[in-house]
Design brief:
α1 runs antiparallel to α3 and α2 packs antiparallel against α3. It is built from 6 helices and 7 strands. It has a domain of 94 residues. The strands form 2 sheets. Strands 1-2-3-4 form a 4-stranded antiparallel sheet. A 3-stranded antiparallel sheet has the order 5-6-7. By secondary structure, the chain is α+β, with helices and mostly antiparallel strands. A hairpin with a 3-residue loop joins β2 and β3. Bound molecules: zinc ion.
Length: 238
C-alpha cells in the first residue's frame, strides 16, 4: 500500500452544494430525529391497528353495546388523536429545518474553493494547492478522514476542509485505498511525539538543526550529539 498520493481534480460549486447538503442530512441530530420519528410512527400504526380490530369486532357483534364499550372507544380515539397531533408536526419541523439549511447553503459563496485542486498526501500531512490557496497541513491539524455523500472529506482545525469527488479517483477501489491510507496516516499521527519522531527518522538522513549531526535512526527526542530537543514539525516544515 502506498504512503503517498498525488491527486489532481476539479471541484465545482455543485460538488460543494452536494457535500454541504449531505452533511446536513447525515448529521447525527437529524439521523437520530428521523429514526425516533419512524419508531413512533410504527407504534402509532400498531396502536391504530389494534383499535380498528377491536372496533370491527364490536361492530360485527350484534348490539346494543355495553356502556363500557363507548368509554373505551372514546378514550382510544382521543389517545390516537393526541398521539397524531404530538408526532405529526415534529417531522414537519425536521423537514422545515433541513430545507432552511439547504437554502442557506445555496447562498454560500464557494468560488474560492472551486477549480483545479492538487493534493499531495504523505506521512507528514496534506498539501493542497489551488488557484486561491496553498495549504500545508500536518496530520495533527487534520480531523479523522471521512466520507460524506460519496466525497472523501479532509477537515482541518480551523474549519477549512478539502473535498475529493469520486471522479478524482480511477475507480472505487482506488478511492477506498486513498481513504484507508489517509485513515492509517491520521491514526499514526495520534501516536506520542517520540514514536512519530523515531518512525520518521527511520532510514532518513536529516541533519540536527543545531549541530548538523545526522539524525538517521535516532532514538528519543533529542540530538545524541548536542542534546537539542528535536521537534518533528521543525524537521518536516509543517
Ligand atoms: Zn545536534
Amino acid at each position: 500500500m502506498p504512503d503517498r498520493f498525488d491527486l489532481e481534480f476539479e471541484v465545482t460549486r455543485g460538488d460543494w452544494l452536494a457535500v454541504n447538503k449531505a452533511v446536513v442530512q447525515e448529521s447525527p441530530e437529524w439521523v437520530r430525529a428521523r429514526r425516533k420519528h419512524r419508531r413512533a410512527a410504527r407504534f402509532q400504526a400498531l396502536f391504530a391497528g389494534v383499535i380498528m380490530v377491536y372496533l370491527g369486532y364490536q361492530l360485527f357483534k350484534v348490539g346494543p353495546h355495553p356502556f363500557g364499550f363507548y368509554v373505551v372507544f372514546t378514550v382510544l380515539v382521543v389517545a390516537v388523536m393526541v398521539l397524531m397531533f404530538y408526532l405529526g408536526p415534529r417531522l414537519e419541523h425536521i423537514e422545515q429545518s433541513i430545507k432552511q439549511q439547504f437554502k442557506a447553503i445555496e447562498r454560500f459563496d464557494f468560488s474560492t474553493s472551486t477549480g483545479t485542486t492538487r493534493l499531495t498526501m504523505d506521512e507528514v500531512g496534506i498539501q493542497v494547492r489551488s488557484r486561491y490557496r496553498e495549504l500545508k497541513i500536518s496530520w495533527q491539524a487534520v480531523e479523522r478522514p471521512t466520507t460524506v455523500g460519496g466525497f472523501v472529506m479532509l477537515s482541518y482545525v480551523g474549519a477549512y476542509c478539502t473535498i475529493i469527488p469520486q471522479h478524482a479517483f480511477a475507480s472505487q477501489a482506488s478511492a477506498t485505498e486513498f481513504l484507508d491510507c489517509a485513515s492509517r496516516l491520521w491514526q499514526n499521527a495520534q501516536l506520542p511525539h517520540v514514536e512519530r519522531l523515531e518512525r520518521y527518522l527511520t532510514d532518513r538522513d536529516l541533519p540536527c538543526p543545531k549541530c548538523k549531526y545526522n539524525l538517521r535512526n535516532m532514538r528519543g527526542e533529542s540530538c545524541p550529539e548536542c542534546g537539542k530537543a528535536i521537534k518533528l514539525d521543525v524537521l518536516t516544515g509543517t
